[in-house]
Amino acid sequence: MNTDPETVVGLGLDLIELARFRAAWQRRGDRFLERIFTEHERRVCLRRRDPVPELSARFAAKEATFKAIGTGLRRGVRWRDVEVRNAPSGRPYLHVSGRVAEIARSLGGRRLIVSLTHSADTAAAQVMLMGNAGASPWPEDLIDEET
Ligand SMILES: CC(C)(COP(=O)(O)OP(=O)(O)OC[C@H]1O[C@@H](n2cnc3c(N)ncnc32)[C@H](O)[C@@H]1OP(=O)(O)O)[C@@H](O)C(=O)NCCC(=O)NCCS
Predict the structure, then answer these.
(1) What is the DSSP string of 4-36?
(2) Is 92 contained in some domain?
(3) Does 113 reside within a domain?
(4) pLDDT for 37-76, tens place per residue?
(5) So what's the pLDDT on residue 134?
(6) Which of 1, 107, 125, 147 is deepest in the core (most CB within 10 A)?
(7) Which of 8, 67, 145 to mutate to test the pocket of ligand 1 (most atoms within 8 A of CB)?
(8) What does the pLDDT read at residue 72?
(9) How far does the centroid of ligand 1 lie from the alpha carbon of residue 110, in Å?
């Protein structure tokens, strides 16, 4: 069993302009939502009179997660690999699957922590990948050739 202390092994931050998100949804319709968000996320957000702030914050959480694992939207990573859920208190947490879960684990990650915010104009999310870097060094295949 790995008893090393937990540390931050990845960090991601993302900021979304609500007007740009709204325009993308209007232009591309509900297929845009279906590509990005899980059924659970759509159900939660579409209950709102204006779902755009909640949807944008969840969009930001996905991008912040992609940054925390260091890939962006590459290496087989998909939007719906990251799902934002809420505890009964309202506190958000992430459920990850697919390549996101695999890459997070390969970095020594054991859990992700997320924080969301939204205002009249913007939404933002911060994500931390917690784990044990020493137990699982940064994998070679995540280092770009030019670095
Ligand atoms: C990194 C990513 C997740 C977000 O990029 P973005 O939203 O376009 O840009 P942001 O301004 O939020 O972030 C840019 C910063 O991300 C950081 N970044 C870039 N690649 C990164 C990576 N692989 N891992 C972690 N951080 C990264 C950089 O610091 C960059 O700033 P810099 O160029 O000044 O150094 C991007 O890789 C991505 O895949 N975005 C998907 C965007 C998309 O498809 N949008 C269409 C909507 S359907």
Answers:
(1) SPPEEEEEEEEEEEHHHHHHHHHHHTHHHHHHH
(2) yes
(3) yes
(4) 999 999 999 999 999 999 999 999 999 999 999 998 888 9
(5) 67
(6) 125
(7) 67
(8) 86
(9) 23
Domain with 93 in it: what CATH number? 3.90.470.20
Å from CA of 72 to ligand 1 middle:
6
User: Which pLDDT score, from 0 to 100, does residue 147 have?
Assistant: 47
Is 39 a member of any domain? Answer: yes
Residues of the chain with pLDDT under 70: 1-3, 134-147
Q: Look at residues 74, 73, 59, 80 and name the one whose alpha carbon lies nearest to residue 14.
A: 59
Give CA separation, 26 vs 30, 31, 84, in Å. Answer: 8, 10, 23
On whether residue 103 sits in a domain, the answer given is yes
Beta-ladder partners of 92: 86
